[in-house]
Amino acid sequence: MIIVNVKENESIEKALKRFKKKFDKTGAVRELRARQAFTKPSVKKRDQVIKAAYKQRLQTEAAK
To answer: Could you give the CA distance from residue 57 to residue 62 in angstroms, rounded to a whole number?
Structure first.
């Protein structure tokens, strides 16, 4: 359960922004979207490999 204490003289918009930030950090929405459809473990692993290769390529290009 996420608790956001509203400070004195703090606007609701600021408190709501802090709540949204905390909620995003929990990853609840991301997990729900991932659970909507089953992805095979081989597909997950392939996606991870592609993502890692992309990151590696970006780092090598930045180092040049």
So the answer is: 9
